[in-house]
Amino acid sequence: MEPKQIHTYVCIALFCMVISVSSIVVKIATILPADNSRIFSIDRVTPAIQMAIDELSNNYTLVENLTFSVEYANSQCSIAEGINQAIDFYINKKVDAFFGPVCDYAVAPVARQTRFWNIPLISGGAMARDFAIYRKSQYPKLTRVGPVNFNSLSDFFVKLFRHSGWKSLKILYNREGHANVFEDFCHLCVEAIHYDIIEKAREIKQDYFRLDEKTDLRTILLEEVGNTFGDF
């Protein structure tokens, strides 16, 4: 084949590629709570997604032939409703990538299912310890983009205690604390710290006590903390 013919075929192939790319619509299914008491509600996140799309469209030639279509659904931060909305997007062929859910109980079943659908899922949540432990086996399509997760928090505690030479840890927590983030936020946080310290730093003695609305903090500090967990 003559070089001129090769050049012609390459040009035709590139032209066809551009034509095909220009027709691509990237469908983003965003599953978040509609409740604005949540820090990552649909109303709070929508402007950020639109800003990202505008930034990509205006400044990056790699996506100049792509169109982004974003649809939203209310997860209700529910273990049932999150997967229900995800299935609806999937069976109606309305998703190339999932943004959310974010609440841990809502994102878990969706993240497990996406490995069978071969669809990526990006979440600012998925903070619980299990998402890291079972990353490859159960959540291979999940990418966590939050500023922190409970695994990094437990790593911080281990490094802090070793640096300071501390040997005892007492955790006082309210299971319903920070419920505006998601249900059982503090419970899952303490669980991660507890088991990670057992796994990574057995030399640290630890205990925990669950608070409730009727708890008298002065009494608890005297009875549960006292001098046992003080550093003198």
Automatic annotation (TrEMBL):
Location relative to the cell: Membrane
**Ranges for domain Receptor ligand binding region:** 45-192
Query: What Gene3D superfamilies does the record point to?
Result: 3.40.50.2300
Membrane-spanning segments: 6-29
Read off the SUPFAM superfamilies from this record. Periplasmic binding protein-like I
Major location (coarse): membrane
Q: Which GO terms describe its molecular function?
A: peptide hormone binding; signaling receptor activity
Which named protein is this?
Atrial natriuretic peptide receptor 3
Source organism (scientific name): Mizuhopecten yessoensis (Japanese scallop)
